[in-house]
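Technical appendix A lists one of the benchmark inputs used to test multi-chain prediction within the project. The record comprises two sequence entries:
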Amino acid sequence: MPHTRQPGSVGPVKKQFHTFCEPPHELELEGGGRLGPITLAYETYGRLNREKSNAILILHALTGDSHAAGIYAEDDPKPGWWDYLIGPGRPVDTDKYFVICSNVIGGCQGSTGPASVNPATGRPYGLTFPVITVNDMVRAQAHLLDHMGIDRLLAVLGGSMGGMQALVWSVLFPDRIMAAIPIATTAKHSPQQIAFNQVGRAAIMADSHFNGGDYYGGEIPRSGLSLARMVGHITYRSDEAMHERFGRKLRGKKALGYNFGIDFEVESFLHYQGDSFVERFDANAYLYITKAIDYFDLSMPSGSLTAELARAKCKFLVVSFSSDWLYPPYQSKEVVKSLLVNGIDATYCEIETRFGHDAFLLPGEMDTIIGNFLANLASRGGIKAPSVS
Amino acid sequence: MPHTRQPGSVGPVKKQFHTFCEPPHELELEGGGRLGPITLAYETYGRLNREKSNAILILHALTGDSHAAGIYAEDDPKPGWWDYLIGPGRPVDTDKYFVICSNVIGGCQGSTGPASVNPATGRPYGLTFPVITVNDMVRAQAHLLDHMGIDRLLAVLGGSMGGMQALVWSVLFPDRIMAAIPIATTAKHSPQQIAFNQVGRAAIMADSHFNGGDYYGGEIPRSGLSLARMVGHITYRSDEAMHERFGRKLRGKKALGYNFGIDFEVESFLHYQGDSFVERFDANAYLYITKAIDYFDLSMPSGSLTAELARAKCKFLVVSFSSDWLYPPYQSKEVVKSLLVNGIDATYCEIETRFGHDAFLLPGEMDTIIGNFLANLASRGGIKAPSVS
């Protein structure tokens, strides 16, 4: 019953917020300019050991948040998004490891983003929020670790955009991580990936309620954000998985309607995904985060992925999924090849699955592989479990 | 210089319109009800032989039209959409064959569709136009052939939605065609294909100018239709082709803009495609035609594609393209398997290409294969070229 257990051997999931109130109050941004003070929403699971050597940073994807595991109360309808992976006795074992997950800057789940109030104006930033990058997200996370007194992480771990952050950690802070686990990701966004994101952004910006991003307190660009999410959801699923789940099944009718209402289950599913997303996500945050991942290109500035990855020092476990056509396995293989050319200790696993990109969010073989990788890492590094107080 | 030659050995391309003014004035529709009188816009190339046995019907795709080949005047910027395939001495040789291409009903390029004036009201149909199907499109084409006095076609030939029409011809009018050439198509729309179309329709219907489809004479749902086309264009291209053509090249700038303007070539391309499409296509027609192809399922009503294709009598040449992920080769193979189970004479060719679904509109190996297939067909059938007058 994974969904009803509390993760962390020290009891309920913690939810904490931290404001960078000590100097520097501002984060220097890759695109120029500064942002601050910054708030990062984060959660922790398990306990830090005395040596502060058992910390693992979980990195979330485009629409994820800091609530990676557990429930806050017994009647929570569902646990954090990676609950089956993180918890006592689970692959990311909170009896052994101290697990941290923070919401990215630019997001809308507690960390500073375009929906946050700009202290200079007293109003939400909207599109006056600076365009941030994956590097900026990672630098903010490094500040959080400074604040927590953690010099070095056992591992950084994430899928999709989370995998991009894991890659960035390995080159921006090579001495601060023992291992990186980038999953279902790429070293640079491809034109097809950019194209899908641009459609989503165009849908949001074409919404008559968008108002140049200044819609807070009024009607929100509901249909635009919903459309963006619908496009996204198609790319998260494989053709095969959609055949299996939806086929050509009709929705609530026995025959085609011969009108422009919903005919098929798959249409109903997409609209449900779009509509429910609007309730929990900010349209501007969708713009900023998709832009950050479109800008992501680890091969820059030299133009050579191998040259850039030469800065990395940690071990790598790279995971991809056979039916993931949004971040296809060839993109993971490019990363692995560049790592191996550099003589870096890298393991690669392509997992056979029909679930497409979504596979990284679903229980499967990946879990054991990650669990074993972390256990070996901790064992070889002499990492001690936290003492029972 | 294929683009400057006039197709057809009898001179310039003809453009003709035909109204079904003889009884029956109305077409019975698959979804119930009737539509009429109907206008079909069509073009012909070459000349019909005395036996009326050398006619080939070209079937266009979602956004195609009856202008399949040739130019109307020397200064036309570009010829019809399949010009390299159709013309004197070309694979569909207009010195030998009489070639016909008509715009589908439900379309907006001269044939009766939602932008047409409803004779009962004197106003454009808009969404009062009945939902039509691929079968309806084909039945209207059969009426056109009746009008032209052509009992039997040498071949029907089309890609994508054109391929669906070719398949329908084979089962609705098995005695009226000698061969069918369905290209880059499917026997039924998959949930992924439906999902992409539904996003396009939702974008159009969410546009504040859509007005329930009654936008004629006012502002049109420009941004919605543009978005629909942008989504479509991603699906027409392979990942590989986009890498090759766009990569991560910037558009008109030397560095990332760090704002929400266009950064990448691929974004600019998509917007260009969307914006130019709006100038030539009607948003309601996009709704009707995508609905028709989403409804397309040749395995119905029995549920067995093999059982339904048992009605076919003609020869088949089925063509797919290796990198077409919108209508992947496995969908063509399903058609071929069902044909072969029925003992029908079917040839299958999967062409290796990096151009994705768009490959069916580009010169390549397909042309020769089609040319040879037609030449063999005509030779074995004793089809005579039209006499020189």
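Chain B touches chain A through 57 residues (CB under 8 Å). DSSP finds ten helices and 14 strands in chain B. Comparable benchmark entries are summarised in Table A2.
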